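FAQ: What does the model actually see?

It sees only this:
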Amino acid sequence: MRKISVFKAEKIKHKNYPQIQSNILVERTGIRGNKKSEETLYYISSKVLPSKKIAAKIRGHWLIENQVHWVKDVIFNEDKSKIKELQAARNLSLLYTIIMNVYRSFGFDSINKTRNILVRK
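And it is asked to produce this:
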């Protein structure tokens, strides 16, 4: 279950984030595995939106995070790459994206399981 609260940030003047218009509090509870899970998350936004719209935007962000960035980091070890030249790093990241799209185009929803099937260790 999620509870989302949006607060106007009229009185907050942060030197690094002068465009802050709202603070968002997300309280999540649920079950992960066999354990009860409780989590409180805080966000800032340059807009003041209704909580339902904020919730949709947060879910969209985490969808991208879980389906793209997490895969690139955990499965392909992108954050541990020793490549320092910017264009080479961009090219490798693009290659990872292509690989993920090929896996998904064949109907695989788990890149990790797909990799274990296709690449015998």
